[in-house]
Write the structure tokens for this entry.
Amino acid sequence: MSQQRIEIVQEFTFPVSKLFAFLSVHENLEQIFAPVKIRTIRAGSDAPNGVGSTRELRILIAPPFEETVTAFKENELIEYRITRGSPLKNHHGVMRFYQMGDGSRLHYTIVFEGKLPFVAGLIRRGLEQSIRRGLKNLRL
């Protein structure tokens, strides 16, 4: 099974503190991953949406799955993995945040494999398109 990779670099006109504050809240990610519904099911150990926090994602009629934050450094980094459910395996998402003058830059990568043939490639196309559209339309 081949590994899929999504890599997105997006610049914003608002400061990194504002971007990080928004994207670190699990439920706010619904704007990026539409039509996914997201809810927090466990708070993190040091911060509500920090390391150990878990969110449940529901996509239309598919079974829900969970993602857990594995690294969290305010205004710099969020890493997460799928920890339950999903037709994917070896999933790792990384959001890196950079201050750019008065604005900010997000470098977002996701790598994963499918549990079944062809699944990962189909998911990659739809997921990447959704994330790009959501980030492009993000207004804070």
